[in-house]
Specification:
heterodimer, A: Pyruvate-ferredoxin Oxidoreductase, domain 3, 7 helices, about 15% strand, B: alpha/beta, Rossmann fold, 3 domains, globular
Chain lengths: ~210, ~550
């Protein structure tokens, strides 16, 4: 396991790594994107990201892309080319299928934000659909864990990202992510975010 | 944010396209900046709002884009380096001021940022391609493809403007303005920092330049067209062409260039690519040289096929057998995506390309944007639904958060057009059909373009009920201040303007008082002349921030 981790983490080995982050407006997707971008820059990668601001944030579906590697052109990840899909809301993970291939890892928050006037799909149905394209799907009760251990689920996204790092699903060193968290997160909320990071490192799910 | 003012030459900073625009302006020594917010250009104003004082730059959120441009024109006439930023529809509002400005030319170098939004991620009303304005106005248009170019092209724009005394447009799109990458910092001009709050221009009278009266105006047009030809020669050296011996090649610009490079890598083929940095004036010599010996060329551009038509025209002169492919393989509606471009290039170059996962279908999530929980507009909606039979009343929509009234479950919107239009259109319907109308307008939109339409209802006598949704901010674009917002001491009171326009039926109500709100709607619906309810309650996000 350790051997593999070193191999993946070596910058020379990574041509490009594509992450799609999904969720609903106000879940802090852009903050997590910024952390990945800063951490990747500190490891010497080129970066491109694509974000949506404005009206799309008012509780609607939000999808942001972050890519790093030796040389990145497009800010958008092409169809079927995502390596990792982080979904901060369970149903939104379905929108990741467009970007997935059979090797794509899905890390999905077990957290449903109902869609007004629509029946929510069950977790089981959602996972079943995603598994048709990739078997690497993990449903993580990030919101529950953060609420129980830290008293709030606002850091679910940071927890999910940190989990991806410790599970070796993203080829960036945990130390680089922690450094980026310290750079991006305002002083006032830093302690809480670092706690979420540490919580992920001790998580059962990592083993 | 303060990092944007860093003077570490050569340092790499991860910047959003819009932040890179700001940095480019600072590195050019910008002195005067004006804007009206509009996604995807809003972060330019938001960023200047935060750093202008420290950077020693004059900054304002103007009442609308035309006024912002006019302020910029005044600054330029006074010799200041000026930046004006807006979204595509803002350019329409500002167009009346733009054309004469291109005729008079600049005194202080001036760059105008215009952000288009292909696919209308954050835009109602139309999928506008502002490149077309170049033909109308004879204004140079530069098209960056990434944040590094946003910074570089703003600097180039200032150089061209300074050299030829002409305003220059830098046109971005959502995927450029909201793209991030590490940008290499250049030097911030020292004079900027040294002149904090002191940069005073001077207007020197020069009727020959500043007065666009005939017959001089026609001379000005002639001078302008001559200027454009000079800039065309200058532009020939600035577009990137990788030439090769191949007989097939690609011409592209803006963000499409990035998708082309992505596609060539993916397909593992090597085709010559001409990347046009100038949309107007077009580097015609460069294009002619590029296409002279080709058999086939693919034009990769978003929205309307402006470049494709230009290449068709130029090919007639140098290579009339050239096969020109563009919109045949790429959509004219909606933004391009890398996979669309890869698929088009594969077909063009007879390469095999299949998208492995396209067989998978997933349920479509209909999660639309919603008004925030606790938004004061919910109270207005509730009162209206209790006060009137909504099937018998026409509801006029307007640009702002309240355009979400069109979505379920609210469904109080029967037409939606541009800023300030809800009242103007309501007047026309009243005069033509006489049906009952309630029309909405936000506070920032009211100041932007709603006032002339309100005066028209009084002047030409119609009786819609206008509900002005005063939430004390420009909410949708990220809470920028406006002339009535309380962040400005002695903000202008909307009710005083309404009364001064001659409206007799005016009430300022907090919609939390539902009973009175309902009663007033019922009463005002019966009035023979125009009536206005000012629904006054701050945006919930502002209240939450204050906590």
């Amino acid at each position: 396991m350790k051997m593999k981790m070193r191999l993946i983490s070596s910058p020379k080995k990574i041509k490009q790594f594509n992450t799609v982050i999904l969720g609903t407006g106000g879940q802090g997707l852009i903050t997590v994107l910024q952390i990945i971008a800063e951490a990747a820059l500190s490891e010497g990668y080129d970066i491109k990201s694509s974000e949506l601001h404005g009206l799309s944030q008012r509780g609607g579906s939000v999808e942001v892309h972050i890519r790093f590697g030796k040389k990145i052109y497009s800010p958008l990840i092409p169809q079927g080319k995502a390596d990792l899909i982080l979904s901060f809301e369970t149903q939104e993970a379905l929108r990741g299928v467009y970007f997935a291939n059979k090797n794509t890892s899905f890390l999905v928050n077990k957290f449903i934000v109902p869609i007004p006037l629509e029946k929510s799909l069950s977790e089981g149905e959602i996972i079943k659909i995603i598994k048709k394209i990739s078997k690497n799907v993990v449903l993580v009760p990030a919101a529950d864990i953060c609420r129980e251990k830290l008293g709030t689920d606002v850091v679910s996204g940071i927890y999910l990202l940190s989990l991806a790092v410790f599970k070796n699903l993203i080829p960036i060193k945990p130390a680089s992510i922690l450094k980026a968290i310290k750079k991006i997160i305002p002083e006032k909320y830093l302690e809480l975010n670092v706690k979420a990071f540490n919580l992920a490192s001790n998580s059962e799910a990592v083993k | 944010m303060q990092e944007l003012l860093s003077n570490k030459l050569g340092k790499k900073l991860i910047l959003l396209g819009n932040e890179a625009v700001v940095r480019g302006a600072l590195e050019s020594g910008v002195q005067f900046v004006s804007t009206y917010p509009g996604t995807p250009s809003s972060e330019i104003g938001n960023t200047f709002f935060k750093i202008a004082e420290k950077a020693g730059v004059y900054f304002e959120f103007s009442t609308n884009e035309k006024v912002a441009l006019e302020a910029g024109i005044g600054a330029s006439f006074s010799g200041l380096k000026t930046l004006v930023a807006m979204k595509n529809f803002g350019l329409n509002v500002a167009l009346d001021a733009l054309l004469p400005f291109v005729y008079t030319g600049t005194k202080g170098a001036t760059v105008i940022i215009v952000a288009d939004d292909p696919s209308c991620h954050s835009s109602a009303q139309s999928e506008e391609n502002s490149r077309g304005v170049a033909y109308l106005a004879h204004i140079p248009v530069l098209e960056p493809s990434d944040p590094q170019e946003c910074k570089d092209f703003v600097k180039l724009g200032f150089q061209i403007s300074g050299k030829y005394n002409i305003p220059v447009i830098v046109r971005t799109t959502t995927r450029v303005a909201h793209q991030k990458m590490p940008v290499i910092l250049g030097k911030i001009s020292v004079s900027v920092k040294a002149s904090v709050g002191k940069q005073k221009g001077k207007f020197i009278k020069n009727p020959k330049q500043f007065i666009t009266l005939p017959p001089r105006v026609l001379e000005m047009k002639k001078e302008l067209l001559e200027k454009i030809e000079k800039i065309r020669s200058f532009s020939e050296n600035l577009s990137r062409a990788d030439t090769g011996s191949q007989k097939t090649a690609i011409i592209t610009s803006g963000v499409s260039y990035l998708y082309v490079m992505e596609a060539l890598k993916e397909l593992n083929i090597n085709l010559p690519v001409l990347k046009l940095n100038f949309f107007y004036p077009l580097s015609e010599k460069k294009i002619k040289n590029f296409i002279k010996k080709l058999k086939k060329v693919l034009i990769v551009e978003e929205l309307e096929p402006f470049l494709e038509k230009e290449v068709q025209r130029l090919a007639k002169e140098v290579n009339c057998k050239l096969e020109i492919v563009g919109k045949k393989l790429l959509p004219e509606v909606g933004e391009l995506k890398p996979e669309f471009v890869t698929s088009a290039i594969a077909k063009f170059a007879n390469k095999k390309f299949t998208i492995w996962n396209s067989q998978f279908k997933t349920p479509v999530l209909k999660r639309y944007p919603q008004l925030c929980p606790g938004c004061p507009y919910w109270l207005v909606i509730s009162a209206i639904k209790k006060a009137v039979d909504t099937s018998k009343v026409i509801f006029g929509g307007e640009i702002g958060c309240y355009m979400l009234f069109g979505n379920p479950p609210v469904k109080l919107q029967d037409y939606l057009s541009c800023m300030g239009s809800s009242v103007g259109i309501a007047h026309g319907i009243k005069k033509s059909a006489g049906q009952k109308i309630i029309t909405f307008v936000g506070d920032s939109s009211f100041f932007h373009a709603g006032i002339p339409a309100l005066i028209n209802t009084v002047f030409n006598k119609s009786n819609p009920l206008i509900i002005i949704l005063e939430n004390e901010t420009t909410a949708m674009t990220g809470h920028q201040p406006h002339p009535g917002a309380p962040v400005i001491p002695n903000g202008i009171k909307i009710e005083e303007i309404v009364k001064a326009c001659g409206v007799k039926n005016v009430k300022v109500l907090d919609p939390i008082n539902q009973e009175e709100f309902i009663k007033t709607i019922k009463e005002f619906m019966e009035k023979p002349d125009v009536s206005v309810i000012i629904s006054k309650r701050p945006c919930i996000q502002i209240l939450n921030k204050k906590k």
